[in-house]
Amino acid sequence: MGKRTISTVLIFTFLSITLVGPAAAHGKTSDTSPPEARRQFLLEKMETLTGIPWYLLAAMDQYERNVQRSRPDLKEKKGLIAITVPSRLWTGVTNPDPEDTIPESILFFGGIGRDGNRDGKADPNNELDVLYTVTRFLSRYGHTWDDLREGLWNYYQHPTPIDIITHIAEVYKHYGTTQLDGNHFLMPLRYNYTYHNTWGDRRGYGGLRIHEGTDVFADYGTPVLSTCYGYVELRGWNRFGGWRIGIRDLKNNYHYFAHLSRFNKDVKKGDVVAPGEIIGYVGSSGYGPPGTSGKFPPHLHYGMYKFNGKNTFSFDPYPYLKAWERATAKKQRDAKKKEKKRR
Ligand SMILES: [Zn+2]
Where in this chain does the record put each M23ase beta-sheet core domain (predicted)? Predict the structure, then answer.
């Protein structure tokens, strides 16, 4: 038996126990565990067997789920794994049958679809077949972070998914879990601030461009907080935005905070942040060379952008800000009540 055959059999055995067998017997998860926990358990097993980090697979899965949720022309894949291998990639570009599931003919036509559960079919709707196929594909390129990025490049053929997936992966890796929910309002509620629905305005401080965000007016030095779990993709100066910071969250959204007076020195490009973490302070920077400030009243410009698998587009953050403001206020009230009870 060749080395490859052995590993295939191992994967099959492990995975069939993981998915089909009584999950509770493994101690760590059970059928009643949240799907996130069961997914992570499955992907950790895949890492043991294939060397592809669980958090990268989880990020790939999350990225595809986000795309499916943001696109009316796509359906969200049911089950634990949302990864959907395009049929031409699965069966092979020259394959006359785009729904081919015969492993031998897929191989012949250069498709990447493989049979992971050993039922004789390479089925793109079977989770084990999908995971086995994707990990085999990525493994071709090697296992360093650069190798994995190269593998993702060859899989998606688009630069944005590579950044989004590797950055989501950094967040999962940092916390050791995919169960990261919750947002926070972008300033501490006890500070004075005002904001209106200004998205799409031609006024505001965006010149002649359409205003892609909400301006939150507050005094100089008011702390600016991360609204999400995310990865700092950008930090520095931009002619229009002044000192600005960009955070990628776990839902294919990019959060843009501009006109800061200064950054939190401890939060740098490439860092992972949590909701409510201070990332900088309100200012009026921008509209000139680095350091330009005071050309308009101090405020935070906050923008949200989504990538849907094809394009990046701006959307209105105002309803989200309102919802996070309410949720943050409620959380603080509840915490106070608890505190009172304890005394
Ligand atoms: Zn603005």
Answer: 210-309
Residue 183 Cα to ligand 1 middle (Å): 21
- Ligand 1 centroid–CA 215 distance in Å is 4
**pLDDT score recorded for residue 2:** 46
- List CB contacts of 133: < 8 A, sequence separation 6 or more: 85, 90, 112, 113, 114, 116, 122
> 126 with 255, same domain?
no
Residues 159 and 33 in one domain: yes
- Residue 260's domain comprises 193-342
Same domain, 159 and 199: no
Q: How confident is the model at residue 199 (pLDDT cuts 50, 70, 90)?
A: confident
In the reported structure, the alpha carbon of residue 40 is separated from the centroid of ligand 1 by a whole-number distance in angstroms of 39
* Confidence band, pLDDT 50/70/90 cuts, at residue 208: low
pLDDT in tens, 27-86: 455 667 888 999 999 999 999 999 999 999 999 999 999 999 999 999 899 889 999 999
Q: For residue range 94-116, list pLDDT tens digits in order.
A: 999 999 999 999 999 999 999 99
How far, in Å, from the CA of 205 to the mean position of ligand 1? 5
Report, in angstroms and rounded to the nearest whole number, the Rg of the chain calculated over CA atoms: 23
Q: Do 155 and 214 share a domain, yes or no?
A: no
78 DSSP 8-state letter: P
CA distances from 134 to 10, 58, 89, 156, 191 (A): 17, 12, 11, 12, 48
198 C-alpha vs ligand 1 centroid, how far in Å?
8
Q: Is residue 182 part of a domain?
A: no
Burial zone of 91 (CB within 10 Å; 0-12 exposed, 13-18 middle, 19+ buried): buried
Cα(207) to centroid of ligand 1, in Å? 10
How far is the centre of ligand 1, averaged over its atoms, from the C-alpha of 272 (Å)?
A: 25
Indicate the average pLDDT of the chain.
90
Are residues 256 and 201 part of one domain?
yes
Whether this prediction's pTM lies above 0.70 is answered by yes
